[in-house]
Every structure is written in C-alpha cells, then in structure tokens.
Write a structure and sequence with these properties.
By secondary structure, the chain is of the alpha/beta class. It has one domain: TIM Barrel (Alpha-Beta Barrel), CATH 3.20.20. The chain has helices spanning about 5-10, 30-35, 75-85, 100-115, 145-155, 190-200, 215-225, 245-255, 260-265, 270-290, 305-315; strands spanning about 15-20, 45-50, 55-60, 65-70, 90-95, 120-125, 175-180, 205-210, 235-240, 295-300. It has an eight-stranded parallel β-barrel with strand order 1-2-5-6-7-8-9-10, surrounded by five helices. Helix 2 (about 30-35) links the parallel strand 1 and strand 2. Helix 4 (about 100-115) packs across helix 5 (about 145-155) and helix 10 runs parallel beside helix 11. The longest helix is centred in the C-terminal third of the chain and has 21 residues, at about 270-290.
C-alpha cells in the first residue's frame, strides 16, 4: 500500500521507524530483535537504510595493493522482503545513487516490484570516507532527482532499454529527504528549497526530514515549503540522543542545532545513562508538540535502539 494512502486515510499521527541492516556476518535476528518491541505501536512503515560497501587497500607481497572490503551490510531488498513477510508491515528501502549504475538501479527496482514493495525513499547518499566529496558511479546518477525521474519513467512503463514494448509499468510511491536546517552543501535555505521543489515536481510524493531537536525549525521549514509550492506530506524525523559524545557528533554530521535548554540539561549529565534519560524526556516533549500540531507521522531513527524509542512511543501513542 502506498504510504501516501496510509497518511491520507489516517485521522491521527502515525508512527514509523528506520533501521540499519546488520553488518556482514550478523543474522537477521538482530533486525527482528530491534523491531519486536515496537510492534505494539503498529508502525505504519519501516525504513531500511542502504550503506555503501567500504574498502581499504592492503599491501601484499611484491608491493602490489589489494582492494579489500572491510564493511558491508546485507542487501536492503532482502531485508525489506523479510520484514514484510514476518510483520505484515510496509517496508521502505532506501535507493541511493552512490555505488549503483542506472541499470543496477533498474534491476533493484524490478526486484522490489516482484516482491510487492510499493514504496521507496530516493536519496543521493553520502560520499565514501576516502572521497572528499560525493562521486557518482560511472553510468550512475549524481543527484536524487535523477533517481526520482528514473523511477517515474518506470512507473510509466519506460525502461532503459528503449526497444522494450508492452513493458509493465511499476507503481512506486517515491519519498525524498529534506533538511529543516539546510543541507550542509547548500549555500542557503532558499537554494535547498528549490532543489526539494524540483524533486517533488519530478514525482516525489512525500518528504521525510533529517533529525532535528528544535521543533520550531520543523514548523518554519514546513511553512517555507508551503510558500514555495511544496504541498506533499512532510514527515518529521526524530532521533533520541543517548550518549554524551552525540552532543558534538550529531550536530557535526547532520547539521542539526541542539537548543540551549536541551544542551544545558545534557551538560549536567555525568554519564550516558543520565544522557539517555534526558534524551528520552526531550523527545517525548518534542513528540507531544508535533502530534498536537497534527503532523502526518513521527519517524524515529532508531539505529537499532528499540528500548529508547519504545519509551517515547509508550508516552505519546
């Protein structure tokens, strides 16, 4: 079922989560263990991220360098199928530009269609650690909007092979990401909004925001979106702060501001246990205010930490 249908049919704020695929060598049980405690809250969907394979070069005998994979997460497509089969809940795979050619993207989307997966989140993806900036795969896409357009063409029955006739159209509902406090590569918010508007005009049907800790940033962002003609559902993304080091790492990585009152409470904490308690309390208050404002859904970046997400969900749903 398309997420836009779920959102339009619901008379209340929905609940959803985002999970990480396990690292290579881990079983899917780790995924189930993180989802099981949250099923009582009937998530509308479960996002499954995609992470590019990471490599290092090891010097071998004779002086030559060998490219060795050091970090790889199992296939997002298979995990989505397993989640839908086990829980009867919509699974939303992330489709990224990085590491994929257009043909590989098309093949992945065909697999998703065969599996009955109706929703995808189209993202450019991050650069790999060895690159100072994002570099597209040869024969791949450079921007998320190009992914949106490719999926839109497949929804019309148009595939890369122009000689195909009577090709069955896909029926994907496409979501995209947005940044309430501006993407770090954008020179200003208006520039960022123009690019988001272009993705919506290209066929994106809903938006999920990056994490934020200040609701006023989300409300102002939604207002700006509406003023710029972006009228699709905008789902707020929430992260529960659980460790003291995140006070500095999260703003650096995700370009999100930590409000002064929240920061002052976190600074009083002497260990991560106290930080987690403060983080849960802050997220509960965030969630209550957002629900009061009738947001379509609360999307939690769980990172496999179901305990904290459950504490917040229990308090607000």
């Amino acid at each position: 079922m398309k997420l836009t249908h779920k959102l339009s049919e619901s008379k209340k704020t929905l609940f959803s989560i985002e999970i990480l695929p396990p690292l290579k060598g881990k079983s899917i049980q780790s995924i189930y263990d993180s989802i099981d405690p949250l099923m009582d809250f009937k998530p509308a969907f479960v996002d499954v991220t995609y992470h590019r394979e990471e490599y290092i070069y090891k010097k071998r005998e004779g002086g030559y360098l060998e490219k060795v994979s050091i970090r790889k997460r199992p296939g997002t497509v298979g995990i989505c199928a397993a989640i839908m089969n086990k829980y009867d809940v919509e699974a939303v795979p992330h489709i990224i530009c990085g590491g994929f050619t257009k043909e590989e993207t098309e093949n992945a989307l065909i697999d998703l269609q065969f599996l009955g997966i109706d929703n995808v989140l189209a993202l450019r993806g991050d650069s790999i650690k060895t690159e100072p900036a994002f570099v597209p795969e040869p024969g791949g896409h450079a921007f998320a909007i190009d992914l949106v357009k490719q999926i839109g063409e497949m929804n019309k029955g148009k595939y890369l092979d122009e000689d195909m006739t009577d090709a069955a159209p896909t029926n994907f509902c496409v979501g995209v990401a947005a940044y309430p406090e501006k993407h770090f590569e954008a020179p200003n918010m208006i520039f960022d909004l123009k690019h988001l508007k272009a993705k919506v005009d290209a066929g994106a049907e809903y938006v999920v925001t990056q994490m934020f800790f200040d609701n006023s940033k989300y409300f102002e962002f939604v207002k700006l979106c509406r003023e710029h003609g972006i009228n699709v559902p905008i789902i707020p993304g929430l992260k529960i702060l659980t460790a003291k080091k995140q006070i500095t790492t999260l703003p650096k990585i995700f370009q999100c501001n930590i409000p002064q009152p929240f920061y002052e409470e976190l600074e009083k904490c002497t260990d991560d246990k106290q930080v987690k308690e403060v983080g849960i309390k802050w997220c509960i208050e965030q969630s209550k205010e957002l629900i009061k404002a009738n947001v379509p859904c609360l999307h939690f970046y769980t990172m496999g930490a179901s305990e904290t997400t459950k504490a917040v969900a229990k308090a607000v749903f």
